[in-house]
Amino acid sequence: MSRKNYSEEFRRQAVELYESTPGATIRGIAADLGVVRGTLTGWIDQYGTGTKTPSTYPGAPARSEAEKPPYERKRLEAHEPKSSSAATKYRRRTS
Q: For the residues of 15-72, what is the DSSP string, one character each?
């Protein structure tokens, strides 16, 4: 596997994305950008300001789908049921 070289601008933007996205995780941002978590962690140590936008507090209004970061939308889509037929079949068997 070859080692990738990322520009300093890309690194700084990745760190800014992490620090400015409420509720973002290193794992989620790294996956979204296609970098290894350890690499992103190193960039945060090197370029980070030490401040992180806090996640929404419990009881806060839920964000719309458009407001959610792309990595969160992908994760949610992966857990959505493929069709309602499985639930229908289950209900028929248990009734």
A: HHHHHHSTT--HHHHHHHHT--HHHHHHHHHHH--S--PPPPPTTSPPPPGGGS-HHH
